[in-house]
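Protein in question quoted in full.
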Amino acid sequence: MARPSLPEKLNICVTSRNFPIASRPDHHGYLWPIVRGLANRGHHVTILSSTNPLGKAEIVDSGVHAYYLNEGVVTSPTPFGELLRSRFLETHHKQPFHILHSLDNSAILLGKTKKENHLAIAYDVEATQMGQVFSILGMAQESLSSLVTTGVALAYKFISTFLGGDRALLKTADGVFVTSPQQRISLERYYLYPDSRVYTVPYGIEVRNFEPRPKSEGLLKELGIPSNAQIIVTLTDMTELEEVKNLLLAFQKVAIKKPNTRLIIIGQGPLKHQIEYEMLSLALGSRVVFAGPVHTDLLTDYVSLCDVYIDLSARSSGFEPTMLEAMAQKKVIIGSEVNPIANIVEDGRDGFLVRPADTQSISTLLIDIFEFPLLSSEIGESARKKVVDLFDTKKMVDETISAYKSILMRTGWYRA
């Protein structure tokens, strides 16, 4: 039987436990501009996810159909992966999908039966546990004992995550999407995944949605921050104490030399009480503001408040959308040198890169930023130009379509 030609218009399913359907990106929301762009090109796009802030089980927006499998269910003991498999196969048998793009590891059950279902599967690198390995690198210090400890921890974490899940997941992958050369090299060198099946698409944000805006006087008043304060903002899930502790240690030195500085910590998590204790033990009670969980629609207002946006996390293996938004708003950003942001930020030109454990260098850098506002303005301009040039929605959509078609052609099901 002759193989069919690859169809011009694809039937695409995108899945993730968390996929907010909103104009502003958070975690996986950065892909929303792309799926909308795919639909605008005539491709049929379906999203299968768990829940959404609107509490709706089904949302249709810009030609994209999104189904949230845990909405409207009081209690669901069934794991999301099982719910996903059931709903996907039900839909697939009615109108077969050409490709399934999973942003996390929730599609691994479908991956194990992809041949029976005549289905190609692609994962984002976020589906692996690579971010945990990068996190350990970020906490390393330059002393010999720290390097030895880090090396042992790194080897253990890689072996446990690779054998504990990543190897099985990658065996089901027809392709893997990455956002940086660092991830691509790691997949081939350490995860033994063929480079020919890796696709670099720099997912980011729709920069046109984030024009620079003035500070909100109302929000400053609500937070109890003076209008002339120099403000640092960070976003954290409060699951790694050292990340926030290092920032607090660095900020303590800044607060002594620059009494009008304030640190706003956005987020909620299991280690909040420990973080509050660290803050109080450093006598920073009047200088640190815990904003708590902030709705995605309001995050832009918080970013607009800051003079510096800092993220010392190395756990993400992709670009952190709020940091990209800060760059789009012409803010000075400070990121981890082992975070993928290091692949687009030129240190000292459009942002700064630091080793998260080097609190002395971080505090010195923050003081210098506040003492030389003209230089900060130039860096902010360069930062916006960088993200405008890099995260062009049309280019991202073109590259995603090209990757999907390459993955499908590699299956051997279609003729050239």
